[in-house]
Write a structure and sequence with these properties.
heterotrimer; A alpha+beta; B mainly alpha; C mainly alpha; A: alpha+beta; 5-stranded mixed sheet; 3-stranded mixed sheet; 8 helices; 18% strand; B: mainly alpha
Chain lengths: 320, 202, 646
């Protein structure tokens, strides 16, 4: 868990100008074109304004030199041409970004108030993986994410990988990401979705294909069996408490479906859709009263004796 | 500031009909606003229709055609007294205006009464599904617009029977009221077509 | 009606004319007279004042947001409070300030600029004002009761649907839209009719001042755009109140439909707010460069083109929803091309400055600020018009920066300039020029320090409408800078309005025409008499006061002993007929009160509308019922026409 915290603090890639995906790189190229062209236009207009202000030897109000008409016509025509050039660049980039790719890997992302459910689809149900708030993808492989919302509109946006796409109830959509290098890429919900819109972030963890294969292997397993007495007690606490009404831990009787799957909770970087780092202290506080860190979220305060809470955190902390 | 008169307007009339009058222009823009409301609502109707495989959705019967068709006839007939009132107002003929307005108001009342039956034969509730919702809403908007115009016409009719009736301003108001009634009639035709014929034909 | 060059008027004639007109047009006195007034000066001033009060409230909300965002994980505001505040900030600036303040200024200035005695339908104007006042009182009352809307000014479904927004907050939003849009639509109709039918004789359509053109275009856009949002707000009201399913996907409804209806209004709304600003810029450039604006026809066509194109690009607010690519290309092209008419206007103003002799007085300084700021907003608008860029920039702080550059640059800078410019006309006193310059620089610097860093924040991944952010995101430094900028901006605003308030009573007397203006409002005293002009002016050019002969040509034969107004032809402004306007009345106030009660009652039960409309019908009948034939110019149709009083 300590490693998680360190990487968390050190590696935040979350910028349009720091592209790590094919789409984001293409868009960043278009951005540069637009930036420099519009900056040049701005400078030209301001220079013209300043010269107009400073000019000596003004004309009589009655006369308008012919050159004025010519200048305004030229400026107008130049604007039209520049805009058409930008429009062309934009449409070509749009096509490049929208290009259909094969989908070796298919993920369904479901927006929830205020977290992300992630399902790795597979024809064989036992090979499916369910997770929350963290998407692990192999570098260099296009990943098509199917977007779905079961409550309000959310928007999936990881700036370093691609632009955003809304998750709209009744209108499922897709977005493709292709990470060019390994790294951790942060994204935040980009459509206002209610009281905790600010704390609805997710991570995309792009790893080399070999590591990805190992990750898949591990993630398909059911939850680790508790080994220490405290962990065993923690599982019992979990099953007796209201937790299983909402949460699932595969391999146990807990199969709630309205809150994040906890089967591999300890391997995640953060809690509450990146509200808190995934540390022992934070997890303890989160279970005791999640409303402290994320007021209005669906997770209720859980009233446990301190030794019960300790055991529960021991158990959850073991779910690698 | 010293000034000299270059135009004398004392001979000009102190009222005017049609596009010369400000009342006519106010009516035109009111019609534009209400027309935009109907256009947005009709656009919504077709937008929602596009989401359904069948329209009305499965298990929802078609709306009854009899009463709305009666209402089309009522409205078309009402154009006759309406035009008579408009012509009479422009002649400042108070007697004809009074009789014509009463007749025209009776047509509008008949329309509202038939409208009640129309709602009863929509064969869907507003809270059954989106089809029912938009059908009720579109018909509701039109009813609202009709009832407010009827109330307005009745007040104006009473006014024409009062001592204030015989004033040029009132005749302009009557003429513009008749002008507006054309919009009531003309807006009903597309709404009728959308609500009762488009589910049958499209 | 011809009588070219009747005898010039002597000062005794003028005194007698004033006497009679004053008696006819002066507001009534007494305890409750405030509720009776309908003249465009009183209502226009109140409208402006109220709009600026809401502007101040919206500004305070913005300051609270900036404090909250000044550092990561700040706890100054709770999430719920922040969401109410950002929603109400948007609602205030769009519904309670942006549109109304421009209409309010027009209510005051347009009749004077057109050379007429009154605004068309003055009682309706009073009604519209009171509705607007009640709208703001309702929504700010809701904020103090912790009931303010919290789903954003755009109130997207299904977040605003009954399933996800229980309570009354969204209903308050829907009623607020009804309030403000009814008010805005009424004023828009008055403005259009006044401009089309009450211009001074000779002010044909190609001699209308550019400000008048801009308000004509704006008012027409209001007429065609606002119904769409009223329809949407009534749909959501019905979904919430009586259980319709128009936006409920489970029952065949559709959530994207909301976005289409909303943005079909919401995008033109942006133009509705800044096109009047462009008109103000034209007025100020003309007067402070001592030269008519270059390219009148191009300016007018640009305004009209902007209005038409403004209705064709609402979908660029919906690029992230995923649309067919051909549709996207169309809306990208339309959104980029709308920069052309704005560009043409910028070029024409620069040409005017080039040819003229600029004098750097405060109104002109605000116009220069407009250039520097608005052009950035226009260019970042070209960026977000591009689909690939927009899917990165949409709903981030980049867009927050962009929209403030457009709206503060395009509307607020010209508006402040316009207030400075017309202040002497409205109050008879001048604002302090030194303080005017100081407030300009504070506003200009504060604005840029606040909003320029937001471009970078958006590019760095900061979404809009977040009440806080984590320290690890690295957004803290620029947010702190923006908050400091907001402090400077706030100081500048305080200085500007302090300057205005102080000089309302203490300012130097202005005289009729302190700036050497070209348009008709400067032809009458400051503040203008209740009847505006002793005798209606006759116009023979675009800048009537600049090529006025020795003795100003005026209209004779308009009755002074009743509220008679000259109605002219739409295109050539030839005199057509005289028309008597209604006298002061308390019914607009009473009817507005009843409307407000009905709309607020509608938050709780649909029956409120049935009862309310009945009551309203009674009040409206009282409103329109003539008081007595003599007073209202109701003499019977065949009685002789009345002549002039003097």
């Amino acid at each position: 868990m300590l490693m998680n915290v360190l990487t968390y603090a050190a590696l935040v890639h979350e910028s349009v100008l720091d592209p790590a995906g094919t789409h984001a790189r293409t868009i960043a190229g278009l951005w540069s074109v637009f930036l420099w062209v519009t900056a040049a236009i701005y400078v030209l207009v301001m220079v013209a304004l300043v010269i107009a202000l400073m000019r000596r030897g003004k004309h009589d109000a009655a006369e308008t030199p012919r050159g004025t008409y010519a200048a305004v016509w030229v400026a107008g025509a130049a604007s039209v041409m520049v805009l058409f050039a930008l429009l062309t660049a934009s449409i070509l980039t749009g096509r490049a970004v929208a290009e259909e790719r094969s989908e070796p890997l298919r993920i369904t992302l479901t927006g929830r108030q205020w977290w992300w459910q992630i399902d790795y689809e597979d024809a064989d149900p036992s090979r499916r993986i369910t997770s929350a708030n963290e998407i692990t993808v192999p570098v260099g492989v296009p990943v098509t994410i199917h977007l779905h919302s079961s409550d309000v509109i959310h928007s999936f946006w990881v700036p370093s990988l691609n632009g955003k796409r809304d998750l709209i109830p009744g209108h499922d959509g897709t977005i493709t990401i292709l990470a060019e290098r390994a790294g951790l890429f942060r994204g935040q919900c980009a459509e206002f979705c209610g009281v905790q819109h600010a704390k609805m972030a997710l991570w995309v963890n792009a790893v080399e294909p070999a590591i990805y294969a190992r990750w898949v292997e591990g993630s398909r397993k059911t939850a680790r069996t508790p080994s220490t007495p405290s962990e065993i007690a923690g599982l019992q606490v979990f099953l007796r408490s209201p937790c299983p009404l909402c949460h699932t831990i595969q391999g146990t009787d807990a199969s709630g479906s309205t809150a994040p799957d906890l089967t591999h909770l300890a391997s995640r970087r953060s809690l509450g859709a990146d509200s808190l780092p995934n540390t022992r202290a934070a997890l303890t506080g989160w279970i005791r009263d999640a409303q402290q860190a994320k007021p209005g979220c669906q997770m209720p305060a859980i009233d446990l004796r301190s030794e019960e809470l300790n055991a529960l955190v021991d158990y959850l902390g073991s779910l690698q | 500031m010293s000034s000299r008169a270059t135009i004398d307007v004392s001979d000009l009339p102190d009222f005017a009909f049609g596009s010369r009058s400000i009342m006519w222009w106010a009516t035109v823009w009111t019609i534009a606003i209400e027309g935009a409301v109907f256009a947005a609502t009709i656009a919504t109707y077709f937008y929602l229709q596009g989401n359904e495989k069948s329209w009305p959705p499965a298990d929802t019967p078609l709306p009854g055609l009899f009463w709305p068709t009666v209402n089309v006839l009522v409205l078309l007939l009402s154009l006759l007294p309406n035009q008579i009132v408009k012509n009479a107002a422009e002649r400042c003929d108070l007697r004809t205006v009074r009789i014509g307005m009463v007749v025209a108001d009776l047509f509008a009342v008949a329309f509202v009464v038939v409208r009640v039956f129309e709602f009863h034969h929509l064969n869907v509730r507003w809270d059954s599904n989106a089809y029912g919702s938009i059908t009720w809403t579109l018909l509701g908007f039109h009813t609202f617009h009709l009832v407010t115009d009827l109330a307005d016409s009745i007040v104006l009719t009473v006014l024409m029977f009062s001592r204030h009736g015989h004033a040029p301003k009132r005749f302009v108001d009557v003429a513009e009221n008749s002008f507006y009634w054309y919009f009531v009639v003309i807006s009903w035709i597309p709404i009728y077509a959308v609500l009762y014929w488009s589910p049958r034909v499209l | 009606m011809t009588g070219t060059d009747v005898m010039p008027y002597s000062s005794t004639d003028d005194a007698a004319q004033h006497e009679v007109l004053q008696k006819t047009w002066a507001p009534r006195r007494g305890l409750f007279s405030w509720f009776f007034q309908i003249d465009h000066h009183s209502i226009g001033r109140r409208f402006l004042f109220t709009a600026f009060v809401w502007f101040g409230c919206g500004g305070i909300l913005a300051a609270l947001m900036r404090v909250q965002l000044a550092k990561p994980n700040n706890t100054f505001l709770s999430a719920d409070r922040y969401n109410q505040i950002f929603t109400l900030h948007g609602i205030t600036m769009m519904f309670l300030f942006g549109v109304p303040v421009m209409e309010a200024l027009a209510v005051y200035v347009i009749p004077l600029m057109l050379g007429t005695r009154a605004l068309a339908f003055p009682r309706a104007n009073a009604y519209a004002y009171y509705l607007f006042l009640f709208a703001g009182l309702m929504v700010y009352g809701a904020l103090f009761l912790d009931m303010a809307p919290d789903t954003g000014w755009f109130s997207y479904v299904p977040l605003a649907s009954p399933a996800f927004a229980p309570g009354k907050r969204v209903d308050i939003w829907a009623e607020l839209v009804n309030f403000t849009e009814i008010s805005a639509l009424i004023v828009a109709v008055e403005i259009v009719v006044t401009i089309l039918k009450q211009r001074a004789p000779g002010m044909s359509i190609h001699r209308m001042p550019l400000y008048v053109w801009s308000m004509l275009v704006t008012a027409l856009m209001i007429i065609f755009a606002m119904p769409s949002v009223m329809v949407a707000s009534n749909f959501i009201g019905l979904d919430r109140l009586v259980g319709t399913h128009i936006f409920n996907p489970a029952e065949g409804g559709d959530v994207l439909l909301w976005q289409h209806l909303f943005w079909f209004f919401g995008h033109p709304e942006v133009y509705i707010i800044f096109i009047p600003g462009l008109g103000i810029v034209s007025s100020i450039v003309t007067v402070f460069c001592r030269r008519p604006v270059f390219g009148y026809t191009a300016m007018v066509l640009s305004l009209v083109a902007t209005a038409f194109m403004g209705f064709g690009l609402w979908v660029h607010h919906m690029f992230a929803t995923g649309l067919p690519q051909s549709g996207e290309s169309f809306f990208t092209a339309a959104s980029m091309m709308i920069a052309i008419p704005s560009g043409v206007q910028i070029f024409c103003w620069i040409a005017t400055i080039w040819l003229g002799r600029p004098s750097y007085r405060p109104p002109f300084m605000f116009v220069l600020g407009f250039f520097a700021v608005f052009v950035i907003g226009g260019l970042s608008g070209v960026m977000v018009a591009s689909v690939p860029l927009d899917i990165q920039l949409h709903d981030t702080f980049f867009v927050v920066a962009h929209l403030h550059y457009v709206l503060i640059g395009g509307a607020v800078f010209p508006l402040l300039g316009g207030i400075f410019y017309w202040f002497p006309k409205m109050t008879g006193r001048l604002m302090h020029e030194g303080l005017g310059h100081a407030s300009f620089w504070l506003v200009f610097i504060g604005f840029n320090v606040t909003f320029f860093p937001m471009h970078k924040l958006g590019l760095s991944g900061m979404p809009r409408r977040v009440y806080t952010y984590l320290p690890e995101t690295g957004w803290g430094a620029l947010n702190l800078l923006a908050t400091i900028g907001a402090g400077v901006l706030g100081l500048g605003m305080l200085l500007f309005f302090g300057n205005a308030l102080w000089n309302m009573w203490r300012g130097r007397a202005a005289g009729a025409d302190p700036w050497g203006g070209d348009t008709l409002e400067w032809a009458t005293s400051s503040p203008p008499p209740h009847y505006n002009f002793l005798r209606l002016p006759v116009v023979s050019g675009r800048e009537p006061l600049w090529h006025e002969p020795e003795r100003a040509p005026v209209v004779a034969g308009l009755a002074a002993d009743k509220r008679e107004v000259l109605i002219t032809h739409v295109f050539d402004a030839a005199p057509d007929h005289r028309y008597v306007y209604p006298s002061p009345s308390p019914w607009p106030f009473v009817a507005a009160l009843a409307t407000a009660a009905m709309l607020v009652g509608g938050l709780f039960t649909p029956w409120s509308f049935a009862i309310g409309l009945t009551v309203l019908a009674i009040f409206l009948t009282a409103w329109f019922w003539p008081s007595s034939p003599a007073k209202e110019g109701e003499e019977s149709a065949d009685s002789p026409k009345s002549g002039e009083a003097s």
